[in-house]
Amino acid sequence: EQNRNSLMFQFSRMTDTLWHALWIRGAGGWSPMVTDQEPWLQVDLREQMEVTAVATQGRYDSWDWVSSYLLLYSDTGRAWKQYRHEDGVGRFVGNVNSEAVVQNKLSHPVRTRFLRFVPRDWNPSGWMGLRVEVYGCSYKSYMADFDGRSSLLYRFNQKSMSTVKDVISLRFRSHQAEGVLLHGEGQRGDYITLELHQGRLDLYLNLDDSRLRFSSGRVAVSVGSLLDDQHWHSVHIERFNKQVNLTVDSHTQHFQTKGEGHSLEVDYELSFGGIPLPGKPGTFLRKNFHGCMENLYYNGINIIDLAKRRKPQIHSGNVTFSCSQPQLVACTFLSSSSSFLSLPSAASATGGFSVRFQFRTWNPDGLLLFVQLSPEPQRLVLQISNSRLYLTLHSSGRQKSEVSAGHRVNNGLWHSVSLDTKNLQITLTVDGEPSSAIELWEQLESRGNFYFGGCPTTDCQHLTPAFQGCMRLIFINRQPKDLNQAQQGLLGNYNELQFDTCNIRDRCLPNLCEHGGRCSQTWSSFSCDCSGTGYSGATCHNSIYESSCEAYKLIGSSSGFYSIDPDGSGPLGPTQVYCNMTEEKVWTVLAHNSTAPVTVQGSSLLKPHIMKFNYSASAEELQAIVSGSEQCQQEVVYDCKRSRLFNTKDGSPLSWWLDREGERRSYWGGFLPGVQQCSCSLEENCMDMNYFCNCDADTDTWANDTGVLSYKDHLPVSQIVIGDTNRTGSQAVYHIGPLRCYGDKSIWNAASFYQESSYLYFPTLQAELASDISFYFKTSAPSGVFLENLGLKDFIRVELSSPSAVTFSFDVGNGPVVLSMKSHLPLNDRQWHYVRAERNVKEASLQVDQLPLRFLEAPADGHPRLRLSSQLFVGGTASQQRGFLGCIRTLTVNGVSFDLEERAKMTPGVSSGCPGYCSGSSSLCHNRGRCIEKSNGYVCDCSQSAYGGTTCDQEVSVSFDMESSVTYTFQEPFSVMQNRSSQASSVSTESSSRAREDVAFSFVTSQKPAMLLTVSTFNQQYIAVILAKNGSLQIWYHLQTDRSPDVFSPALNNLADGRLHRIRIHRVGKNLYVQVSSTLSFAFPLIHNSNLENFNEKVMEAASKGFSGCLSSVQFNHVAPLKAALTNRGSSLVTIRGPLVQSNCGALAESTSHTLQGKTFTHSPHGNGTQKDLAVIAGVVTAVVFIAVCALAVISRLLYQQRRAQRSSSIKEETRHSVYTDYRTELHLHNSVRDNMKEYYI
């Protein structure tokens, strides 16, 4: 113990600077005994100090030093808290030798008396050795102690205090999660309340809003978390008028108060520590604060100082002016597999036994207590399971009794548990709620030790996971257990425990889930629920939508309503637009709220007619769409009779419109702003050439001025003002068309690099917490750096590291990370290749073309922020070495498209654009077709497209009758399964955000019910798309065989109507997005009570009926199974039954496209419990379909030849037999990956 914490230090004070230093100088230093378990060095500053920095050295003239350490601090030396930097990292960088001094400045100073240095790494060739120095200064402290029944009242000099500006600051500490810190209210209805609630700080503030006077209408602004940890927390409130900043520690919320008022009117007094009931001293409306406050200031007034000096404006009830609150000592269970605390039982005077303790955790599962009972072999287990407490009594054999209690006990708050055996009962009480009891036949006694948090014996090792969290106030048979004795080895035994501290963290504060994703956490990590956000990925970073209508056309979509996300992973949300793809150009159409012509009469310049236009997008989204398009336009139709647009005397406008910035515009056609004239003047065909507009002729007959506005910077029209229809016979009718844009400037924005030393430079990447980089490249060079950005130590780089490998590397402070993707084909083949690299606080990923993604998980407690300082180099490096030779296009970082062409115009060694047939925006190859450069032209590779023909624009359609079916089977070869890092393999099975399918097809049928297609695994998991008995579309997801399937009906009306229908199904993680190309009334009924038998009955009934009709353009991810079936009929892995006739059903789309519109809907089908299997299934599907060298197997639809529905059990048996019989030849070759195989049924 002497070696652990009781070395004495010299202390000096420099009074002129109030700077304090504590040190070990000269020879010697601290070094623990080799036998000490988890040693630490403790420093007593003798009084409260504000510590700003620490420094360390190794032991003098030795091989002993500490290379990394933790820093803990405490007021009393009993309850400790670990210091963490702003980014959440707890480790400090130590020494690399014994003499050099390494100083670490604290990003936020701490006020404390005790410091504890806990070594984590040291010289492997020596031992631990420390000399330390602490920097800081003293500060003045005014303290008050509230016992839960006391308060301070600050009474105003006048009846009411009205303020437009308030500044309130204080520090507090408490071991309770509830309590009022501050309250004031006025007769007008104003109030301010600051209180602890569930360990968070809530601020209620109302400025003259009558709707919020009653508690039911009060809305709190919450900041902070785990504030009941017995450590000091600082609070700062600033209000000016309605603008409020609420800061707790380093977390700030900015908000604006509701109501009409700008001042806060409080009557008589402000209370601190509670809300006293008027006229009843000692009675309070809410739970009082129990703890200590320090340096409490209200608008510059030191409240505690006034109270100490007994000033008349302060009334102090039962408040003392020191902090004597006892600190409750806790211990932390660190490991979910090996932590435990074993304590002996104390003798019970009444027989039986009792246990009491408190715990807090984020984990939904964990073992809390295990005890063996007498008579043998009975044992008692208390564990958390699915966020509830379960007490289980195991008797002989498999007999057991069980009760449950509590709800959401993994919410991070302290929960009290009481376990008692008496009166032939075992009672379980949680948080003082009504007890649950197990009835006994005989009185039970404890046998041996009590195991808390885990268990090392063979009797209970299977009870995993162990508990991860904190425990305190442990009583056995009503006797308290001293954890300090356990730490010193004098009481019981333990493993993987941290004493004297509850080292719990709120990993959802701040919330690192982007775009409104919901954060949830366990003890060691957090996860994001992206359902309903329109984004996917580990942190909801990636948009699930394409960036433009042009991008939708490139993947084979047809005209319809789509959600586009013009800034991708940027802050702007998705926008619903209509994509018109019937012309050569792809038009993006955004409608507004006034689609019908508007008639105007009686308006003048003094009382003009005003119409505001609201679009289906925000102003920022509109600007992103317009600026990203090549050209935009908006038609303005103005019919007039004695209604002029301009005053014929002085030319001043009588009517005008406002652009998107709200600026007045008075030109009515063309792209020449500032020219006050109409289209007829530009075209020189006005009815009276003396005027610039037809309407200015001011005739009694109807005239027309119609123009197309095409100056992008002014579009769209946000408002129109008509001011000349108040004369006799005056009338005007106007119509503002929708905003229409075409082209995507970023898709073909390219630059060519022809000198290795050349590069383009851009501003530093803003990518601290998340960054995604995507681009296309083509080259003949064997290697080269695509992109690089450096910091002092951090960096990020994407490069072609060999002719067939792309490497993504970065360092955020945890050491260099390298993620490499190797292609089975060369990447320097002068063809376009796609690269996407992403890095966030959870993981990094790399995608090249259609190869399966590679993932690498980030360390749980590593540095999260990427700190860059240099310029971003594209096509080269700062050293002008290893530069890229070739073309790069469509470079996008975090949703921002880089204008390579413009920057290349002013850079030597780089030229705008890229030579070659496949480098323009003419879309030579359609529907996912890939343009391949040839020496004298180009060809289209349609292998990954559902379409055929020389340019991939001919639909592949097949007519089926009820005897026809096609089966397509595919699997992931072993080599592809290994094409990922070892660290990533476990991640890919855990992360539901990576599970995805993309299915698209068209069909024509009059049959119902009917099976359209299914995807099935050999372990009976299905995705089935059917038409029900009424012709409605149903999508069945059955991804866990022990659970009911999820069923969705996106189209409730009859689709078996002999017309062409296009279906697109897109699943990302837990989100299902369905698009149906008919104008329908959609709903998503989820059949919660369905069972597996009903599932099989409905799907099997549809399968037994087969399909009679036409299917075309079938796409599953990047495979076109129907097309593959037709082109590989001779393969032993292709099964075709019945007649198949190539058809032209897809051609019907052109004749019916004017009646087809699409809509997009979202739903969250899958609960958290399904996610592990989802990731595995979708990971296999996605990986399988891109590998050309794998034994691409096969092709088909469910093989059911029955004409009548039979019992589902017999159908299931026949299905199983049919599948295994048809494919046993292939299966014996691939036994090791049988469970990874999938079938595609058409």
Which geometry do the CA atoms define?
Answer: globular
Spans where pLDDT lies below 50 across 5 or more residues = 1-22, 972-992, 1078-1093, 1149-1239
> Quick one: biggest sheet?
8 strands, antiparallel
User: Which bin fits the share of residues in helices?
Assistant: under 10%
Report how far the terminal alpha carbons are from each other: 74 Å
What's the total count of β strands?
87
SSE blueprint:
Layout: H1 2-5, E1 10-14, E2 19-23, E3 41-57, E4 66-74, E5 81-82, E6 91-93, E7 102-122, E8 131-137, E9 143-147, E10 151-163, E11 165-174, E12 179-185, E13 191-197, E14 200-206, E15 221-223, E16 233-240, E17 243-248, E18 251-256, E19 264-272, E20 276-277, E21 280-284, E22 290-298, E23 301-302, H2 303-308, E24 314-317, E25 330-333, E26 340-343, E27 354-360, E28 366-374, E29 379-385, E30 388-394, E31 400-405, E32 415-422, E33 425-430, E34 436-439, E35 445-452, E36 469-476, E37 479-480, H3 483-487, E38 493-495, E39 497-499, E40 518-521, E41 526-529, E42 535-536, E43 542-543, H4 549-554, E44 560-564, E45 575-580, E46 587-590, E47 598-600, E48 609-612, H5 619-628, E49 631-641, E50 655-658, E51 664-665, H6 679-682, E52 703-709, E53 719-722, E54 731-736, E55 739-742, E56 750-753, E57 760-762, E58 770-778, E59 784-790, E60 795-802, E61 805-811, E62 817-822, E63 833-840, E64 843-848, E65 854-857, E66 872-874, E67 886-893, E68 896-897, H7 900-904, E69 910-912, E70 930-934, E71 937-941, E72 947-948, E73 954-955, ...
Antiparallel strand pairs: 1-2, 2-8, 3-7, 3-8, 4-5, 4-6, 4-7, 9-22, 10-19, 10-24, 11-16, 11-22, 12-13, 12-19, 13-14, 14-15, 16-17, 17-18, 20-21, 22-23, 25-36, 25-39, 26-35, 26-38, 27-32, 27-36, 28-29, 28-35, 29-30, 30-31, 32-33, 33-34, 36-37, 40-41, 42-43, 44-45, 45-46, 46-55, 47-54, 48-53, ...
Helix pairs in contact: 10-14
